[in-house]
Amino acid sequence: MAIRVQAEDFDVGAELAALSDGNPSIGGVASFVGLVRDMSKGDGSGDSVSAMTLEHYPGMTERQLAAIEAEARTRWPLDGVLIIHRYGRLLPGDRIVLAACASAHRAAAFEACWFLMDWLKTKAPFWKQEETPAGARWVAAKEEDDQAAERWYKRAP
Amino acid sequence: MAIRVQAEDFDVGAELAALSDGNPSIGGVASFVGLVRDMSKGDGSGDSVSAMTLEHYPGMTERQLAAIEAEARTRWPLDGVLIIHRYGRLLPGDRIVLAACASAHRAAAFEACWFLMDWLKTKAPFWKQEETPAGARWVAAKEEDDQAAERWYKRAP
Amino acid sequence: MRILYFAWLRAKIGTAEEEVAPPAGVATTGDLITWLQSRGPNYADALANRAVVKVAVNQDYVSMDHPVAPGDEVALFPPVTGG
Amino acid sequence: MRILYFAWLRAKIGTAEEEVAPPAGVATTGDLITWLQSRGPNYADALANRAVVKVAVNQDYVSMDHPVAPGDEVALFPPVTGG
Could you tell me which pathway this protein works in (chains A, B) (predicted)? Predict the structure, then answer.
């Protein structure tokens, strides 16, 4: 179980190395690093984002991320799973999230990592507020994220 | 164009950071790190592998990897692509390959990275020879790798 | 019963957390929201569109007909936008 | 014409690289392999099963009916196993 919710940045190279360290039956590690974009997404306004604050629900966040990890381990043969998600104020280009899956098989690693991202996008209790020239605004949930999460239900184990 | 074929190890964290550095329109970076496994794959023998030597075809390797990168850029909206592949003698747990794709959209980053791995597995001129207690043996190509590469033809742009 | 609010629900209601003692008829999360809406224009406004209100009881997502009881931690928040 | 061999093809043939001057009738990669097979038992053995012989001309994959010409770099190798 490797779930971390923290304000601090993380060292992607060290985290990925630790995930496979000491287990030479691992064939590969698939990962995703999510970054703060300077453009708002989806609403077409194109207003630049100077910073972003991530609020979360301490306790429930860890609980939901652990449930998502457990679900991934049920669905795929994984030797290691890691989810790190930051909260607090972040600047464009800053790392927000790292999801990584180690497996003997690359298809399992890729699928499971993608699943982690899709599910945490719709289930982990985080909320983004962007700072723009027009003031602060809450990011709206995206229909495409719901659809991305939904497709995994159709492929239940 | 970021293709590197080298004997030396690479720093995953530094490479991934460099891929998105200075471009805050990138929403995420999907990556895959392939590692040397200590077990032979697929033939059921289970002989342990004490080391592996990767031979390649200098010149054609770079040319094929560049073609695979170009194909990925045609198919997906990517802000950065990186492929590093090692050759020479490697030990179990050593990194063999890093493929990474940066994009505004995580689905594009995941798909393109998976595509890079599937295509390079069947197109990049590398050959693995394993050292086992029973002697050295060439790794056989796997039918499942061919199938993994084939599926991308059905989804041509 | 402890109620937590997050993101724009917190901002509109004007508090992050409060202890409430709803009347006896409040048996479900749906009842609870209806009762909260009666507590003032800030609540009424924030909770007007239930399609964008998610509910968790004791840190698990639940539907609008989930039972609530004294001692529960109930959280109300908009659809999540992390990742 | 320069011929390169890799992996177990190289090991079986016993050389990594050679310059050859095939006779005039050798017009395609298929012809070239047939001619190479006649050069000795090591070639005959290594090239016996064409289903597992990949061919590149000037560093691009080609089929068995691809033309070959003096000055070409022709590589013969088994299915690749990198990644």
Answer: Cofactor biosynthesis; molybdopterin biosynthesis
Quick one: pLDDT band at residue B44, thresholds 50, 70, 90? low
Q: What is the mean pLDDT of residues B119-130?
A: 97
Q: How many CB pairs under 8 A join A and B?
A: 107
Q: Is residue B86, in this structure, part of any structural domain at all?
A: yes
CB A32 within 8 A of CB B106: yes
Establish if A96 touches chain C: CB-CB under 8 angstroms.
Answer: yes
The model's pLDDT over A87-122, given as tens digits with 9 standing for 90+, comes to: 999 999 999 999 999 999 999 999 999 999 999 999
Over residues A147-156, the mean pLDDT reads 87
Residue A157 domain-assigned (yes or no): no
pLDDT of the residue at A47: 72
CB contact under 8 A, B141 and D81: yes
CATH code of residue B100: 3.90.1170.40
The minimum CA-CA distance between B126 and chain A, rounded to whole Å, is 17
φ/ψ bin of C78: left (φ > 0), alpha (ψ from -120 to 50), beta (otherwise)? beta
- Residue among A95, A152, A79 at smallest CA distance from A120: A152
Establish if B97 touches chain D: CB-CB under 8 angstroms: yes
Domain annotation covers residue B66 = yes
CA distances from A137 to A36, A125, B18, C7, C52 (A): 15, 18, 30, 10, 16
| Domains, chain C, with CATH or none | 2-77 (3.10.20.30)
* Candidate from A55, A60, A129 with C-beta closest to C56: A60
Report the complex ipTM.
0.94
Give residue B65's domain range. Answer: 3-145
